[in-house]
Specification:
single chain; 631 residues; alpha+beta; six-stranded antiparallel sheet; five-stranded mixed sheet; 18 helices; 22 strands
Length: 631
């Protein structure tokens, strides 16, 4: 046998030869290009167009045979050709189109609403419409029902403009006696809405700003929300498990926050939706080999055997082993083997992200470390808290921009918890979030000394102190230091979201949450996840923030009972929660019934899933004293 260097070289050569021969053999019998054509049609808005493109790209990426076209337009359902296999549309649109009578979403009816189709899954993507009216028509009117009662039968010539995207609500409006004007396309709708002296109403997406129009409330659910659903032709749903698996995996990964991020790439970077969808699918959907797995394995075995036989005939022999000191060792390579990389034991939810290189910021101290973790008792409550630098910041060598804080009030009657998420598009985001947390803890504790219960506070004045403190601290700061992603937006002012909670420190009682921005407070009771504040800070990846935006404060008073869990988090973690309907929340509903160990807690906060790259911060508070012995 030759020297160790030659042995290693021969072994590598053998492996390479095995792979080459194996793939060559497998390629001879593989089908290669399947000739699929993905066609995407959608009558929805740009968000729905992007979602449809994502499903199409995922199916194409996975190489699902038999999926020739993907049609997502409700008008085409009855006329779909035989090679149209998948459809994406809103549940309510499907039900109304399938029935002459307006319907509300019903999971039992959806599978039969489209002939020849089966409901595969429902995404977390929702669309809700509101009726926005001219200010002159809104006097003494609060709800859509009140508006319809006053202006029914075209009283005073009032007409409601309806764009194509929301044509599904025509019947609901006409049944209330309102005059409806269907617009041919979005351009016609925009033109009619911006005509000088426009007086009337318009159906618009919830949360959108339409000039000086005023949105009406809808407690009667006249315009119910629509959930995006995925339908597969019966041939796919019943005979193509690979296609169904891909559709379900994409559905599990597509949260509103993910779509917001991808939509921002389309708008800000000038990319086409199809290109962004293909990039996302490349990170989240495994590619197909073009030939059966069993055939590939057999071919690799045959190719490997041929390669090793040829090398053996040319004089190479496999290295022998001996036992030394009770351990196997390679007698030809006496050097100690390198230790294996430590196993990543974090929770995996859905598609696992690709490995990345982690770069430390130019300066790192314990005060701004990439990971902070704590837990224990605060009077009669139990706390776990963690903040973890996200993958994007880790790869770029940038600082973490989230912050959290927990304290007991001076009179020891209340527990104060705070989470802040510095805006990545602004300068000094990490300073803004840190200052906001400290100012909120101090300001709320000071307000509690007045004796007035926090449930009755004017939260605008309470948080004004925090806003002013952040503004004063950051306005004199110079250019961002290296290692912070804020240097990419030097003109943007510092800003941060802020979510706070004030809870009784002993026993049950009334608690309160207040939030500016999209960092949510979530109450978990009996395994059910209910968002109290902080959801939907704004569309298109835009959120309210401080300093400023104090008109957008969300306040929620709630009952705090034994066994309850309150979760304050930044959107980097909340993206995986998605309203409590994800595999992650199903897992946490079990593992967080009682406070976990610190190690388990941080591993679940830092779960692994592609596209969830933001910083993650969670403060979890359990009512009652629990065993806090932490291994």
């Amino acid at each position: 046998m030759g020297p160790p260097g030659r042995v290693r070289t021969s072994a590598v050569s053998a492996l390479v030869a095995a792979l080459v021969i194996g793939f060559a053999v497998a390629g001879c019998g593989g089908s290669g290009e399947s000739g699929r054509q993905i066609v995407v049609n959608t009558r929805g808005g740009e968000r729905e167009q992007l979602v449809a493109e994502i499903y199409a790209a995922a199916l194409d990426r996975a190489g699902v045979d038999g999926v020739a076209k993907k049609v997502a337009e409700i008008a085409d359902y009855a006329k779909q050709p035989d090679d149209a296999r998948v459809a994406v549309d809103y549940d309510l649109d499907v039900l109304v189109a399938a029935s002459p009578v307006p319907s509300t979403p019903d999971d039992q009816r959806l599978p039969t609403a489209l002939p020849g189709h089966t409901l595969v899954s429902k995404t977390a993507i929702q669309s809700r419409a509101v009726l926005a009216v001219s200010p002159s028509l809104q006097q003494d009117i609060r709800t859509i029902a009140e508006f319809a009662q006053k202006y029914q039968n075209n009283a005073a010539g009032v007409t409601v403009l309806v764009p194509p995207e929301f044509g599904v609500f025509n019947r609901a409006l006409t049944d209330r006696g309102l005059a409806v004007s269907d617009q041919a396309d979005q351009a016609a709708f925009d033109a009619a809405l911006t005509q000088p002296g426009f007086t009337g109403g318009a159906i618009v997406p919830a949360g959108s700003k339409q000039g000086n129009l005023v949105s009406l409330e809808d407690p009667d659910n006249i315009l119910p929300s629509r959930t995006l659903s995925v339908f597969a032709g019966d041939q796919v749903a019943k005979g193509d498990p690979e296609a169904e698996r891909v559709l379900q995996e994409v559905t599990d990964a597509l949260t509103p926050q993910v779509v917001d991020r991808l939509l921002t790439e389309v708008k800000n970077n000038g990319k086409k939706p199809a290109d962004v969808a293909r990039d996302w699918a490349g990170d989240n959907v495994p590619t197909s080999s073009g030939f059966p797995l069993a055939q590939m394995i057999l071919a690799l075995l045959l190719g490997g055997a041929a390669a090793f036989t040829a090398l053996y005939l040319f004089g190479w022999r496999p290295p022998t082993t001996a036992v030394r000191g009770g351990r196997r060792s390679d007698v030809a390579t006496p050097d100690a083997p390198r230790s294996a990389a430590p196993q990543d034991t974090r929770v995996v939810v859905g598609p696992e992200p690709r490995r990345i290189a982690v770069h430390l910021p130019w300066s790192t101290t314990s005060a701004d470390a990439g990971l902070a973790l704590d837990g224990g008792l605060v009077k009669g409550t139990t706390v776990r808290a963690a903040t973890v630098r996200g993958r994007t910041h880790s790869f770029r060598g940038e600082t973490r921009q989230d912050a959290y804080g927990v304290r007991l009030s001076s009179d020891e009657r209340w527990v104060i918890a705070v989470v802040a998420d510095g805006l990545g598009s602004a300068r000094h985001a990490e300073i803004a979030s840190t200052v906001a947390v400290r100012a909120a803890l101090d300001g709320i504790d000071s307000a509690l000394r007045s004796g007035e219960r926090p449930q009755s506070w004017d939260w605008k004045s309470v948080l004004a102190y925090v806003s002013d403190t952040v503004r004063r601290t950051t306005e004199s700061l110079g250019s961002p230091r290296p290692g912070t992603n804020t240097e990419r937006a030097p003109s943007a002012r510092p800003g941060t979201t802020l979510t706070v909670a004030v809870l009784p420190s002993e026993g049950e009682g009334q608690a309160v949450c207040a939030a500016v921005g999209d960092s949510p407070a979530i109450l978990v009771t009996g395994g059910q996840w209910q968002a109290l504040t902080g959801e939907g800070g704004g569309g298109d990846n835009v959120t309210a923030a401080i300093p400023g935006d104090l008109a957008d404060i969300q306040v929620q008073v709630f009952s705090w009972r034994a066994g309850d869990l309150l979760v304050l988090s930044s959107d980097g973690f909340a993206a995986g929660v998605a309203g409590g309907r994800t595999p992650l929340t199903q897992r946490l509903s079990q593992t967080w019934r009682t406070p976990p160990s610190l190690v388990d807690f941080v591993q679940e906060v830092d779960f692994r899933l592609s596209t969830f790259d933001d910083d993650r911060t969670v403060v979890a508070i359990w009512a009652g004293r629990h065993d806090t012995a932490v291994p």
